Amino acid sequence: MWKRSLTVLAAGLLGIAVGVPAFTQAPAPLTPVPQAPAAVVPATPTGVGALNKADADAWLDGFMPYALARGDVAGAVVVIVKDGQVLTQRGFGYADVAKRKQVDPATTLFRPGSVSKLYTWTAVMQQVEAGKLNLDADVNQYLDFKIPAYEGKPVTLRNIMTHTAGFEEIIKGLLSFDKPVPSLGDVVKRRIPERIYAPGTTPAYSNYATALAGYIVERVSGMSFDDYVDRNIFGRLGMQYSTFRQPLPARLKPFMSQGYELGSGDAQKYEEIGMAPAGSAAISGGDMAKFMIAHLNKGGPLLSPATAAQMYAPQHSDIPAINGMALGFYEQRINGRRSISHGGDTVYFHSDLWIFPEDNVGLYVSMNSNGKDGVARVLRGRLFEEFADRYLPDANKKPPVELPTAKEHAKLLVGTWTNSRRIDSSFAKVIGLIGDTKVSLDKDGRPVIPALTSPGGAPRKLIEVEPFVWQDAYGHERLAAQVVDGKVVRWSFGEVSPFMVWYRTPGALDSAWLMPALLFGVGVVLLTALSWPVGWFTRRRYGAQLALQGESLRTFRAVRGFAWLTLAALVGWMIVITGLEDFESHGSTDGLILLVQILGTLAFFGLFGLSVWNAWLTWKEKRSWFARVWSVLLVLAAFFILWMALAYRLVGFGTEF
Length: 657
Hints:
By secondary structure, this protein is of the alpha+beta class. It is built from 16 helices and 22 strands. A hairpin with a 2-residue loop joins β20 (478-484) and β21. α5 packs across α6. The longest helix has 32 residues, at 511-542.
C-alpha cells in the first residue's frame, strides 16, 4: 500500500442509490457471477494484435503463466474491458496454494491496495456533484478538528486529490495484523502529520490525506465510510464480491485469496489497513471490471458526465513533459495516448489499474505475492507496456534523437537528491540518510538514476529528446526536470512523477559527505572505546601505570565510558530502524524506542562535551603528539555523530513515526 491513492458519495444521487440494492454487511447470499460476454470487435487488427478475446487470451497465456512461475508468484487476476463490456477476465495460478484452489477471476478477492483510493476519490466527487463539498475550500469547514495552515495557506480537497497537501509520510499504524482497527475518525485525529510543503506546490504521496478525504465523506454524508461505499458505489454497480470492511465479512471469507511473500512460501495473515480509505478494499477481478466500465462510460451510474470529465482532467504540474495528476487518478501516458490509472501495494498484494478514456479500454492486474526480487512491480509494468504496444501502438513512433545539449544538461542532474515523499518530524527521518538518490553519469555522459532501471535491473539508457526531457532509448520511460535560473531544482520520471518528485538535498544533510563522516566518527569512537579494555590488559600484562591523575584520569575514564554508551545507542537505533518494516511490532517496541532515545540523547551530548573537555586538558598538559591528535579526532567524531543525531531527529522523545 506504500505505492498510491482513494474516493466517496452525493446526496443528490440518493434517489438512484435507493433504487439499487444496497450492499450491507448482511445481504442476500452471494450468487455466482458468470463472465460477461466478449465485446464485439472488428476483426481488423489495431496493432500487432487485434483487441478481441481470442487474441487477448492467447497473449495472456503466453505472458502470465511463465512470468508467475519464474517470479515465484502464487496467483494473479487480469481483466480487460472494452466498449462497455468485459473483453476477458482471467485467473492464473492459485488463490490458496496449500489447497490447490485456483484463482476465479469473477469471485476470488484480491487486495488492490492503493487502487482502493479510486473508490474514495469517486465518493468525494459524488459529494462535489451533490453540492456538499467544494474542491477549493478549506477542508477544516468539513471537519470536527483542525488541520493547521501552512504559511497561512489551508489544505483543500484539490490539494488532497493531487497529493499536494504538503503532509509528510507516516508509517506507524498504516498496517497491522490481528488487531482491531480504530474508527476512521480516531485514526485521522490521533496523529496529524507535519506539513512540510506549502499546499499546491509539491507532489508528495499521502495515505493520511486520503484517509482524511474518506472521513470528510463520512461527515458530509452522515454515514460511515464503509456504508457509503457499499451503498453508493458497490451497490450501484452490483459489486457483490467487494468490501472495504475490516475484518473481512464472514460471507466473503471463502472467496478471499491468501497473500504470500513468495508463491513457494507460507500463506500470510490478513492485512488490516489503519487508514482504511487509502487501501483496505478486497475486490474480485470481475467486480473491478464493473468499476472500470463505469468510469469509461463517463461515470456511468456513479457520476454525471460533467463531473467525470472534471475528475479525469489534467491538473497543474511544474514538470508538464511527464505524467501528472488528474483528480485522484494519475496519468500514465504511452504511445501518444493518455491513460488514467492507479497502482497499489500491500505487503502481499500488488495491483495496477489503467483505463484509456479515448479508446474505451481498461486493464487491471492484481497479484497475491511480491515474488522473487520484487518481481511483481516489474511484471505489472511489462504487462502494461506490452498491452499498449500490442493493442494501442503508436503508428508514428521513431527512435529517439539525442539533442546536442545532452551532456551539458545531464551534468546539472549530478548530485544527491531527496524524495518529496519523506518523513521529517520523527526519528524515522534517518531513513533518508540511507535512501537519498545519487545521480551520476555513465561512460557516455548520460544520467544514471538508481531507481530507474530496466526490467532486468540494468541502468536505462536515457537520451535527451527535448531540453531537460530524457527518453529511454529502448522503452517508454521518460525523465524530466524543472529548471529555474539555469539550475535543475526538481526532477521525476513517468512511473511516479504524478505524486512524487526529487529535489536537491540540502548540503547539511547530504549523505555524500555525511555518511563518510559518520563512518569516520563511529570508527574513532569504536577505537576509543576499545582502548579502555585493551589498555587495561596491556598495562596489567606489562606492569605499566596510567600516567594520568585527578581530573585528567576522571575525564579519561568518562570519555571511554561514554564512547561505549554511544556505540550502544547507535546499535539500539539500528535495531529500531531495521524493525520499522515489521508492522506487527508497531506499538510493542515503544518501550525500546524511548529507551534508545534516552540513552542516545545522553550519550551523544555527553560524548561531545567530554571530548571537548578532554581535548582542552590534553593540549593544556602538553601530552604526546598522538594523544593530542587523537583528542582532536575524537572531537570531530563526536561532533559528526551528534550532528547526524540532531539533523535526523534521533535526539528527542516520542514513539510516533
